[in-house]
């Protein structure tokens, strides 16, 4: 006969729970004692401790079973344990890195072994699931709640559980559980190992001479894809495939780095096919945000009217946005794109500039295009040197800062690896606690082609198309034929 749940709901339940907890604590204590005994060369003492601890573990499991602490059909539980163990490997490894950085090498070595063991536990569970063909747990139509500490996923109506219900894995109270959002945001990674200078990133209002050109921040290029669970929505589409590689010299203010993948390939790497994309939201007209708009046969392109007109966009699938849904939080003009996805007027960088805000559970993802080039600018409240309307760019930055102050926000940037690092760690912006700036350690290098690219609009100056006149030999007052920027805004390609 099964002992499962015999004492659950009886007057014995509390006492059994207390003794289960005491036995579980005993496991921790005896193993700690065994380790200490070993450290002191008392192997026989350690042996006795270990013998006791194994019995304590058996006892704890017995009492937990009596109280029905874990479900009798345990496969759903094992599925979440598997996920937690697999995630646990990275978490323990990250902690081991910190322990190592603190100088505790021996402890870190041990923890790296533990990290691998966590991952191995996950693999072993998976093998069992396969053996018993129970890997897939039916959660269809059920709400999922996630433990913030261990990642345990509860499927069903958590409110119906008793008030003292706790996470079966780590003991967190019911109130700590958060409903799992169906919405996910991923980065589409396009360029890496670039840099930008401090005057470029911060000098828009105070003047570039107020900043130190020898200070560099890391740069990259990535756009973002929103998976709402019902549809796949892109925010910007990278550079065009024929966008030339940039070459660095001492005048370079921003260098995107070297190409990782073309946009469509990078989207596939993120897990999506072009045909799946139903909507594209364009933050602004610049070439590194609009390069591959034409590659999505089933997508409607949402772009502000100002920006669409500036790009002369035509086609039935182009939706000129007039922000008819009114204010969104502290932004005066917005348009709802899908549940939890808002396209928001945020001009300044360009006169038709927009940002995207995604609500996912308790978090907000602000996908802001080029409101700032690096997160340091957000924290230090500085504009970059690139804007079409400085006053409006200032107002937009003020509004973005106000938003992140009042709403838990993951800040998804286009031109710094912080964009995807924030996303991976679900790091919430805390304006009062800026992260340590990370200087670039590795910068990609490309060979010069004689071509120059406008850093603002992406226009390519090719001597071969201009009677062989080298860019260097163009008059000093020469302007970009497309966006009228001066020569110094061009980068070597
Ligand atoms: Fe831009
Ligand atoms: Fe950009």
Write a compact overview of the structure shown.
The protein has 493 residues and is α+β, with helices and mostly antiparallel strands. It contains eleven helices and 19 strands.
Number of domains: 3
Question: Helices and strands, in N-to-C order?
Answer: HHHHEEEEHEEEEHEHEHEEEEEHHEHEEE
CATH hierarchy: architecture of the largest domain: 4-Layer Sandwich
N- and C-termini, Cα separation = 76 Å
Q: How would you sum up the major sheet?
A: 8 strands, mixed
Helix and strand content put the structural class at alpha+beta
Give helix % range: 25-40%
Look up the CATH topology of the largest domain. Metallo-beta-lactamase, Chain A
Query: What percent of residues are in strands?
Result: 15-25%
Task: Name the CATH homologous superfamily of the largest domain.
Answer: Ribonuclease Z/Hydroxyacylglutathione hydrolase-like
Mean pLDDT: 91
* Count of alpha/pi helices: 11
Shape: elongated
Tell me the number of strands: 19
Give the ligands present: fe (ii) ion
Low-confidence stretches: none
CATH class of the largest domain: Alpha Beta
Specify Rg, calculated over alpha carbons: 28 Å
Folded structure, characterized:
- The strands form four sheets. Strands 4, 5, 6, 7, 8, 9, 10 and 11 form an eight-stranded mixed β-sheet that branches.
- The mean pLDDT is 91.
- Strand 9 (277-281), helix 7 and strand 10 (300-304) form a beta-alpha-beta unit.
- By secondary structure, the chain is of the alpha+beta class.
- The protein folds into three domains: 13-179, Up-down Bundle (Ferritin), CATH 1.20.1260; 184-425, Ribonuclease Z/Hydroxyacylglutathione hydrolase-like (Metallo-beta-lactamase, Chain A, 4-Layer Sandwich); 452-492, Rubrerythrin, domain 2 (Single Sheet), CATH 2.20.28.10.
- The protein has helices spanning 13-39, 43-66, 75-101, 105-131, 198-202, 263-269, 287-290, 305-310, 375-380, 390-406, 418-425, and strands spanning 144-146, 153-155, 178-179, 184-197, 216-227, 232-235, 254-255, 258-259, 277-281, 300-304, 318-321, 334-338, 341-345, 354-360, 363-367, 409-412, 452-454, 460-461, 490-492.
- The protein starts with 12 loop residues before the first helix and ends with a strand.
- The longest helix has 27 residues, at 13-39.
- Helix content is 32%, strand content 18%.
- It has eleven helices and 19 strands.
- The chain binds fe (ii) ion (2 copies).
